[in-house]
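User: These chains co-purify. Model them together.
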Amino acid sequence: MKKIIENFLDKQTFIEIESILKSEEFPYYLQKGVAFNKPDSQRGILLTHAIIRDRVVAASEKTCELIFDPIIKKLKEIEPTFKEVVRAKINFYPLQFKKLKSDYHIDCINKHKVLILAINTCNGSTEFEDGTHFDAIENNAVIFDGYTKHRSVNQTDELVKLNVNINYECNN
Amino acid sequence: MYNIYDNFLTKSYHKEIKDILTSADFPWFYIFNISDDTDTRELKNEYGFFHLLVNDKGQSNSNYTSFFRPMLHQIMDMTNTNKILKARCDMTTNKGIEKVHNTHVDFVDQTAYKSVIFYVNETDGDTTLFNEKYTSDFKDKTQTIMKKVEPKENRLLVFEGDLLHTGSSPINYSNRILINCNFI
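Assistant: Joint model of the two components:
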């Protein structure tokens, strides 16, 4: 079951986060591409900025304070049984002039939930194996069970597709 | 007007540079125009990623700068220059289409300097050198190609700074990583 939340963050907080993530001063780190079973030229490009890696904080104090904390604060309001973040990262997909889809996957093997918060609006999306999809619309978020297979679809209309991807556990 | 030096660095130093720049630990910064200062956000195809090693005031700008200094000094010795104007790691990515970037020079307000490109990884996307030199109205004129240089790894390209040139994005590889620097 998937839950879509429009206007996930208050407008001012969202604008501040968006501005940081789109700035020339915020670093991103090159990943090996999203479609691992394809040749190098068709893999697509993905850069990320890790915030939590294997339950350990990987980002700077400032990044946590300005980006991570407001999102978690809001998430806790929605998820009263929220327990712990397993992994959190920012995904940065540069513009491609053709649609590329990653392989269907789950993010972690343990029981968990996934939050994806779209930072900008574009024609990219997250597709689910049941045929549904979450469109990249700014400040919209989707929450779904961690065992739901999903994949990213890049955008062909905007310079970047940006989202925050959080894998978290709940009590019970 | 230009020189190409293959196998410029020792094998192990080049490998170390390549390993660093292609690793998931190296920070890249997004820029909507990798070639010059023109606002190309509407065109949506000039974007790239950079990591500044030495800024245009000649100051170190990164924790990684010291690792690259031996290479920068080797280039200075080879080009008979003694000052680094700027040094930057550049990465363009596969956009799914062939893309030649904007024609440009690296500095419009500097004379008698050298532009240098060190190709880091195996990729495609030629660098094009034009016969014409920079003039303030060069965009209104037609340029003729002097040389297309393939981005062979561990290759160094040196040319006069006022020579118009451009790069292109890779189409057969996921990314194209180089070090672009200028000396006087």
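The interface with chain A takes residues 22-32, 41, 44-45, 47, 49, 91, 93-97, 170-175 of chain B (CB under 8 Å).
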